[in-house]
Amino acid sequence: MTRLSGKNCIITGAAGGIGLETSILFAQNGANVLMSDVNKEALDKALTTVKNLAKDAKVETFVCDVSKEDQVEAMIKAVDSWGGLDVIFNNAGIMHAEDADAVDTPERIWDLTHNINVKGVWYGCKHAVLSFRRHSKKKASVINTASVVALVGSATPQLAYTASKGAVLALTRELGIVHAREGFRFNSLCPAPLNTPLLQDWLGDDKEKRYRREVHFPTGRFGEAIEQAQMVVFLASDDSSFVNAQEMIVDGGMTRAYVTPE
Length: 262
Ligand code: NAD
Fold this sequence. Notes:
Blueprint: E1 8-12, H1 17-28, E2 32-37, H2 40-53, E3 59-63, H3 69-77, E4 87-90, H4 107-134, E5 140-145, H5 159-178, E6 184-191, H6 197-203, H7 207-214, H8 225-236, E7 247-250
Parallel strand pairs: 1-2, 1-4, 2-3, 4-5, 5-6, 6-7
Bound molecules: nicotinamide-adenine-dinucleotide.
InterPro entries: NAD(P)-bd_dom_sf, Sc_DH/Rdtase_CS, SDR_fam
Family: Belongs to the short-chain dehydrogenases/reductases (SDR) family.
Keywords: NADP, Oxidoreductase
Protein backbone atom coordinates (compact mmCIF):
# COMPACT_ATOMS: atom_id res chain seq x y z
CA MET A 1 0.00 0.00 0.00
CA THR A 2 1.56 3.26 -1.13
CA ARG A 3 -1.20 5.84 -0.98
CA LEU A 4 0.87 8.06 1.33
CA SER A 5 4.35 7.27 0.01
CA GLY A 6 6.86 10.02 0.70
CA LYS A 7 4.46 12.13 2.76
CA ASN A 8 5.69 13.46 6.10
CA CYS A 9 2.78 13.22 8.51
CA ILE A 10 2.11 14.25 12.10
CA ILE A 11 -0.69 12.70 14.16
CA THR A 12 -1.61 14.22 17.54
CA GLY A 13 -3.35 12.12 20.17
CA ALA A 14 -1.50 9.24 18.51
CA ALA A 15 -1.49 7.06 21.62
CA GLY A 16 -5.30 6.89 21.75
CA GLY A 17 -7.98 5.00 19.82
CA ILE A 18 -8.37 6.93 16.53
CA GLY A 19 -4.81 8.31 16.59
CA LEU A 20 -3.19 4.91 17.01
CA GLU A 21 -5.29 3.22 14.30
CA THR A 22 -4.47 6.11 11.98
CA SER A 23 -0.76 5.88 12.78
CA ILE A 24 -0.84 2.18 11.84
CA LEU A 25 -2.65 2.80 8.55
CA PHE A 26 -0.47 5.80 7.65
CA ALA A 27 2.70 3.76 8.26
CA GLN A 28 1.32 0.80 6.30
CA ASN A 29 0.48 3.18 3.43
CA GLY A 30 4.08 4.35 3.11
CA ALA A 31 3.96 7.60 5.10
CA ASN A 32 6.75 8.87 7.34
CA VAL A 33 4.93 9.29 10.64
CA LEU A 34 5.61 11.45 13.68
CA MET A 35 3.32 10.12 16.41
CA SER A 36 2.63 12.76 19.06
CA ASP A 37 0.83 12.67 22.39
CA VAL A 38 0.98 14.27 25.83
CA ASN A 39 1.19 10.84 27.48
CA LYS A 40 4.76 9.57 27.00
CA GLU A 41 4.19 6.12 28.45
CA ALA A 42 1.17 5.43 26.23
CA LEU A 43 3.02 6.89 23.26
CA ASP A 44 5.99 4.54 23.74
CA LYS A 45 3.60 1.58 23.87
CA ALA A 46 1.77 2.80 20.76
CA LEU A 47 5.08 3.16 18.89
CA THR A 48 5.89 -0.50 19.57
CA THR A 49 2.49 -1.52 18.19
CA VAL A 50 2.96 0.52 15.01
CA LYS A 51 6.52 -0.73 14.45
CA ASN A 52 5.34 -4.33 14.77
CA LEU A 53 2.63 -3.81 12.16
CA ALA A 54 4.63 -1.67 9.71
CA LYS A 55 8.18 -2.92 10.02
CA ASP A 56 9.81 -0.88 7.24
CA ALA A 57 8.10 2.43 7.95
CA LYS A 58 9.81 5.53 9.31
CA VAL A 59 7.96 6.17 12.57
CA GLU A 60 9.10 8.39 15.44
CA THR A 61 7.48 9.97 18.49
CA PHE A 62 7.28 13.47 19.93
CA VAL A 63 5.79 14.29 23.33
CA CYS A 64 3.63 17.40 22.99
CA ASP A 65 0.80 19.07 24.86
CA VAL A 66 -1.22 20.61 22.01
CA SER A 67 -2.56 23.35 24.29
CA LYS A 68 0.98 24.80 24.52
CA GLU A 69 1.93 26.73 21.38
CA ASP A 70 5.70 26.46 21.84
CA GLN A 71 5.39 22.67 22.05
CA VAL A 72 3.24 22.49 18.90
CA GLU A 73 5.73 24.68 17.02
CA ALA A 74 8.62 22.42 18.11
CA MET A 75 6.66 19.29 17.10
CA ILE A 76 6.10 20.61 13.58
CA LYS A 77 9.69 21.84 13.26
CA ALA A 78 10.82 18.31 14.20
CA VAL A 79 9.92 17.16 10.67
CA ASP A 80 11.83 20.01 8.98
CA SER A 81 14.82 17.68 8.64
CA TRP A 82 12.56 15.12 6.89
CA GLY A 83 11.81 17.67 4.15
CA GLY A 84 8.94 19.44 5.88
CA LEU A 85 5.38 18.61 6.81
CA ASP A 86 2.87 17.38 4.18
CA VAL A 87 -0.02 16.20 6.37
CA ILE A 88 -1.15 16.92 9.93
CA PHE A 89 -3.99 15.12 11.69
CA ASN A 90 -4.97 17.39 14.62
CA ASN A 91 -6.77 14.68 16.54
CA ALA A 92 -5.91 15.12 20.24
CA GLY A 93 -8.97 15.99 22.28
CA ILE A 94 -10.62 15.47 25.63
CA MET A 95 -14.15 15.05 26.94
CA HIS A 96 -14.05 15.67 30.68
CA ALA A 97 -16.15 13.70 33.18
CA GLU A 98 -17.23 16.97 34.87
CA ASP A 99 -18.49 18.46 31.58
CA ALA A 100 -22.26 18.92 31.87
CA ASP A 101 -25.00 21.37 30.85
CA ALA A 102 -25.17 25.18 30.89
CA VAL A 103 -25.79 25.26 34.63
CA ASP A 104 -23.43 22.61 35.92
CA THR A 105 -20.32 22.82 33.74
CA PRO A 106 -17.49 24.30 35.85
CA GLU A 107 -15.67 27.19 34.15
CA ARG A 108 -12.28 25.50 34.63
CA ILE A 109 -13.61 22.46 32.68
CA TRP A 110 -14.86 24.76 29.92
CA ASP A 111 -11.44 26.43 29.70
CA LEU A 112 -9.49 23.18 29.86
CA THR A 113 -11.61 21.60 27.13
CA HIS A 114 -11.33 24.63 24.85
CA ASN A 115 -7.59 25.02 25.44
CA ILE A 116 -6.98 21.48 24.18
CA ASN A 117 -9.79 20.92 21.66
CA VAL A 118 -9.89 24.37 20.05
CA LYS A 119 -6.61 26.18 20.72
CA GLY A 120 -4.73 22.92 20.18
CA VAL A 121 -6.25 22.59 16.71
CA TRP A 122 -5.64 26.27 15.94
CA TYR A 123 -1.95 25.99 16.92
CA GLY A 124 -1.64 22.84 14.80
CA CYS A 125 -3.15 24.63 11.79
CA LYS A 126 -1.10 27.79 12.31
CA HIS A 127 2.27 26.09 12.52
CA ALA A 128 1.36 23.68 9.72
CA VAL A 129 0.68 26.63 7.38
CA LEU A 130 3.97 28.29 8.39
CA SER A 131 5.78 25.00 7.73
CA PHE A 132 4.07 24.41 4.35
CA ARG A 133 5.18 27.90 3.28
CA ARG A 134 8.71 27.48 4.69
CA HIS A 135 9.13 24.35 2.57
CA SER A 136 7.32 25.78 -0.50
CA LYS A 137 4.74 22.97 -0.49
CA LYS A 138 2.32 23.21 -3.38
CA LYS A 139 -0.11 20.71 -1.85
CA ALA A 140 -0.74 19.73 1.74
CA SER A 141 -3.56 18.34 3.84
CA VAL A 142 -4.81 19.19 7.32
CA ILE A 143 -7.43 16.99 8.98
CA ASN A 144 -9.02 18.12 12.25
CA THR A 145 -11.09 15.84 14.48
CA ALA A 146 -14.50 17.26 15.36
CA SER A 147 -17.47 15.03 16.31
CA VAL A 148 -21.08 14.36 15.34
CA VAL A 149 -22.07 16.40 18.41
CA ALA A 150 -21.00 19.45 16.42
CA LEU A 151 -23.90 18.60 14.08
CA VAL A 152 -26.66 17.16 16.26
CA GLY A 153 -27.70 17.95 19.81
CA SER A 154 -27.42 15.37 22.55
CA ALA A 155 -29.81 15.01 25.49
CA THR A 156 -26.86 13.72 27.49
CA PRO A 157 -24.96 17.03 27.49
CA GLN A 158 -21.23 17.78 27.47
CA LEU A 159 -21.61 21.47 26.64
CA ALA A 160 -17.95 22.48 26.69
CA TYR A 161 -17.05 19.53 24.45
CA THR A 162 -19.93 20.14 22.04
CA ALA A 163 -19.09 23.83 21.69
CA SER A 164 -15.41 23.02 21.20
CA LYS A 165 -16.16 20.61 18.36
CA GLY A 166 -18.47 23.18 16.73
CA ALA A 167 -15.52 25.57 16.77
CA VAL A 168 -13.31 22.94 15.10
CA LEU A 169 -15.83 22.57 12.26
CA ALA A 170 -16.09 26.32 11.73
CA LEU A 171 -12.37 27.11 11.82
CA THR A 172 -11.53 24.17 9.55
CA ARG A 173 -14.09 25.26 6.93
CA GLU A 174 -12.76 28.80 6.93
CA LEU A 175 -9.11 27.77 6.68
CA GLY A 176 -9.98 25.52 3.74
CA ILE A 177 -11.23 28.58 1.89
CA VAL A 178 -8.47 30.96 3.00
CA HIS A 179 -5.64 28.64 1.87
CA ALA A 180 -7.26 26.98 -1.17
CA ARG A 181 -5.14 28.87 -3.73
CA GLU A 182 -1.97 27.80 -1.93
CA GLY A 183 -2.95 24.14 -2.37
CA PHE A 184 -3.47 23.54 1.36
CA ARG A 185 -6.63 21.53 2.05
CA PHE A 186 -8.44 21.55 5.40
CA ASN A 187 -11.15 19.02 6.24
CA SER A 188 -12.73 17.90 9.47
CA LEU A 189 -13.63 14.40 10.59
CA CYS A 190 -16.90 13.88 12.46
CA PRO A 191 -16.85 10.50 14.22
CA ALA A 192 -19.91 9.04 15.94
CA PRO A 193 -19.42 7.36 19.35
CA LEU A 194 -16.93 4.55 18.94
CA ASN A 195 -16.19 1.15 20.30
CA THR A 196 -13.04 2.42 22.06
CA PRO A 197 -12.01 1.57 25.63
CA LEU A 198 -12.76 5.16 26.67
CA LEU A 199 -16.49 4.86 25.94
CA GLN A 200 -16.91 1.14 26.48
CA ASP A 201 -15.29 1.21 29.95
CA TRP A 202 -17.55 4.09 30.88
CA LEU A 203 -20.68 2.23 29.68
CA GLY A 204 -19.58 -1.01 31.36
CA ASP A 205 -22.43 -3.48 32.00
CA ASP A 206 -25.06 -0.75 32.25
CA LYS A 207 -27.54 -2.12 29.65
CA GLU A 208 -29.87 0.90 29.81
CA LYS A 209 -27.06 3.42 29.31
CA ARG A 210 -25.73 1.34 26.40
CA TYR A 211 -29.18 0.96 24.78
CA ARG A 212 -29.83 4.73 25.15
CA ARG A 213 -26.99 5.22 22.66
CA GLU A 214 -27.02 2.12 20.47
CA VAL A 215 -30.66 2.62 19.49
CA HIS A 216 -29.69 5.69 17.45
CA PHE A 217 -27.42 3.68 15.14
CA PRO A 218 -29.18 2.35 12.01
CA THR A 219 -26.43 -0.28 11.92
CA GLY A 220 -27.18 -1.28 15.53
CA ARG A 221 -23.57 -0.88 16.61
CA PHE A 222 -20.96 1.68 17.58
CA GLY A 223 -18.23 2.54 15.09
CA GLU A 224 -14.66 1.25 15.24
CA ALA A 225 -11.61 3.53 15.42
CA ILE A 226 -10.17 1.94 12.27
CA GLU A 227 -13.27 3.01 10.32
CA GLN A 228 -12.33 6.62 11.17
CA ALA A 229 -8.70 5.98 10.26
CA GLN A 230 -9.71 4.81 6.77
CA MET A 231 -11.34 8.19 6.13
CA VAL A 232 -8.27 10.01 7.42
CA VAL A 233 -6.03 8.10 4.98
CA PHE A 234 -8.33 9.21 2.15
CA LEU A 235 -8.25 12.85 3.28
CA ALA A 236 -4.46 12.76 3.70
CA SER A 237 -3.87 11.20 0.29
CA ASP A 238 -3.98 12.78 -3.15
CA ASP A 239 -7.10 10.65 -3.84
CA SER A 240 -9.00 13.47 -2.12
CA SER A 241 -7.28 16.28 -4.04
CA PHE A 242 -10.58 18.10 -4.74
CA VAL A 243 -12.07 17.54 -1.26
CA ASN A 244 -11.66 20.72 0.76
CA ALA A 245 -13.43 22.56 3.61
CA GLN A 246 -15.73 19.59 4.18
CA GLU A 247 -17.14 17.84 7.21
CA MET A 248 -16.58 14.13 6.67
CA ILE A 249 -19.18 12.30 8.74
CA VAL A 250 -18.28 8.71 9.61
CA ASP A 251 -21.24 7.55 11.67
CA GLY A 252 -22.95 4.54 10.06
CA GLY A 253 -25.84 6.83 9.09
CA MET A 254 -26.56 7.93 12.67
CA THR A 255 -27.00 11.64 11.91
CA ARG A 256 -29.30 10.83 8.95
CA ALA A 257 -31.74 8.61 10.85
CA TYR A 258 -35.21 9.52 12.07
CA VAL A 259 -36.35 6.08 13.23
CA THR A 260 -33.88 3.19 13.18
CA PRO A 261 -34.65 -0.47 12.30
CA GLU A 262 -35.97 -2.74 15.09
P1 NAD B 1 -8.58 8.79 23.29
O1 NAD B 1 -8.82 9.40 24.61
O2 NAD B 1 -8.41 7.31 23.16
O3 NAD B 1 -7.33 9.51 22.57
C1 NAD B 1 -7.04 10.86 22.72
C2 NAD B 1 -5.54 11.01 22.88
O4 NAD B 1 -5.27 12.40 23.01
C3 NAD B 1 -4.98 10.33 24.14
O5 NAD B 1 -3.91 9.48 23.79
C4 NAD B 1 -4.54 11.48 25.01
O6 NAD B 1 -3.37 11.20 25.79
C5 NAD B 1 -4.27 12.57 23.99
N1 NAD B 1 -4.35 13.89 24.57
C6 NAD B 1 -5.22 14.37 25.49
N2 NAD B 1 -4.94 15.63 25.80
C7 NAD B 1 -3.86 15.99 25.05
C8 NAD B 1 -3.08 17.16 24.93
N3 NAD B 1 -3.35 18.24 25.67
N4 NAD B 1 -2.06 17.17 24.05
C9 NAD B 1 -1.77 16.08 23.31
N5 NAD B 1 -2.45 14.92 23.40
C10 NAD B 1 -3.48 14.89 24.27
O7 NAD B 1 -9.78 9.25 22.38
P2 NAD B 1 -10.20 8.92 20.86
O8 NAD B 1 -11.51 8.29 20.95
O9 NAD B 1 -9.14 8.30 20.08
O10 NAD B 1 -10.41 10.44 20.39
C11 NAD B 1 -9.64 11.10 19.44
C12 NAD B 1 -10.41 12.29 18.95
O11 NAD B 1 -11.67 11.86 18.44
C13 NAD B 1 -10.72 13.33 20.02
O12 NAD B 1 -10.58 14.63 19.49
C14 NAD B 1 -12.17 13.04 20.36
O13 NAD B 1 -12.83 14.16 20.87
C15 NAD B 1 -12.71 12.61 19.01
N6 NAD B 1 -13.93 11.81 19.03
C16 NAD B 1 -13.97 10.60 19.67
C17 NAD B 1 -15.15 9.85 19.66
C18 NAD B 1 -15.24 8.52 20.38
O14 NAD B 1 -16.36 7.98 20.56
N7 NAD B 1 -14.13 7.92 20.79
C19 NAD B 1 -16.29 10.34 18.99
C20 NAD B 1 -16.20 11.59 18.35
C21 NAD B 1 -15.02 12.31 18.37
